[in-house]
Amino acid sequence: MIKKILKWSVIIILLLVILVCTGCYVFVHWFAKDIIESQLENVLHRNVEIRAMKLNIFSTEPEILIQDLIIADQKLNEKNKADMSEDIALKDRFVDIKSIQCLLKLMPILNAKLELSALLLKEPKIRVVRFPDGSFNFSDLIKPPEKKKAVTQKKSEQPSKPVDKKPPQTAKPSAPKKEPPAKSKTFSADDLPIHIIIGNIGIKNGHIKLFDQEYQQAIHLKKMNVLLHDTNINPKNLEQENIIKLDISTNVKSEGKLKAAWAKTFDFDVLFEASIQPFNVKTRLLDPQATIKTGSPSGVVSGLQLYESIRSILMNYEIKALNILKEDLNWKNAIVDLDVNQRVVQLKEGAFEMDKLIVNTDGKFLIENKAVDLAVDVLLDNKEQEKIETAVKTFIAKQIDSRASKYVSADKISQNIMDSLLSKDGRIHLIFSVSGPLDKPKTKLAHPKLPALKGIVAQALKNVKDRVVNELKQKAKNEVDKIKQKADKELDKLKDKYLKKEDKEAGNVLDSIKDNVLKKLPFSF
Predict the structure, then answer these.
(1) Helix, strand, coil shares of the chain as percentages rounded to 5?
(2) Using one digit for the tens of pLDDT, what is the confidence trace for 293-333?
(3) Where are the domains of the chain?
(4) Is the pTM of this model over 0.70?
């Protein structure tokens, strides 16, 4: 008897399960689509279309699949709806999702465990429009309900009751009771009733178009992937199971020339990887700590103000070879590690490659003040360094004329300039400091500290002034001495010549006296 009861009980349970499953299948395939469309339209006040909806419950991971979910940009009235074709026109679409897939394991729920294998929005296309008045095409979706306002207005329209003419009773006013301010309770891991495990949840291959009607400009976020994965939060074992991983990748591109001041055009890829601990292990309170690695495989930005401020510093030098930064900021293999909390974003080991340049950056971003404090190190490769060295020599040689070249060595000045440019490793590092508010940061060249090159040449010429004057004085003295020596020699010659002539004339006179006078004397000597 007991066996028969058990047998029929099993049969009845199986029949009930089959009926429930069949009912769910029929409901989803025949009724759920229309019900969901209607409910979404009532909530969103927009036209909603769903092409198909499928349910697979005969699996260890029951699947719900919604195909081609379309939400109109605004709810069409019956007249417009009648004039339109069956599908919502492309220009009127606010959201267009290729498919929504949900995979949920049911058995772990019995063990107080929520295990969601996947909740994916595949190929969603979202069109966001900003109107000239500052509102968006989704502003109506985030407005607070106006029920209370309508009720208040309705009450105000009701006729007022007649005023009671009886004199008011005098009573001592009671002191108002001071209620202690309500303390907002911080969410704790102990508030989680179950163990949460999530495989993949997010967006795959999405496209968001941001259009500004006032400036007639558009920005595209293409090939967007936003995935929360490998989520494991167990309130009973936070030390080992307290992790959320987030991966984001997309291409960000402007359409046409921007009218904004901070940049003209941009087109770059973005990669973002984060490992998040949502709860503090010691306090068990919700206090997210994240380790983030973000980067950009490639990109180009034209007219970026921060970049232009760095570039303008190098353009102040007379040597064109020092203008190593091109007009557009074009990079590849950009990567940076981020440590993020509620107050500070710390940038560590940031690096990217430009044309023949390697750029490293470290610093921090203060969230509350929206201010930055960064050090940017631009390292030149060997070929660029050789070009600069040659350009420095050429420039210095042109600044020194032939007369000054006798006293000043262009090579020596060039070497002094290169020594001031080189760091301890023998390479040229241009280190810039960027600090202050993000919208108007102050940028300066922290290393090397160089005056204008013409000033360096002028200083070099000034340093040799005394030496040149002394040399000229010595040269003049030598010339005077030479002239004096020559004059002395000429004087000696004249003296010798004069003395010889005088001696000869004196001898002739003596001979004449001797011949004509002495010989005629009556006596002899």
Answers:
(1) 35, 35, 25
(2) 888 999 998 877 777 777 777 776 655 666 677 778 888 99
(3) 306-331+350-463, 470-511
(4) no
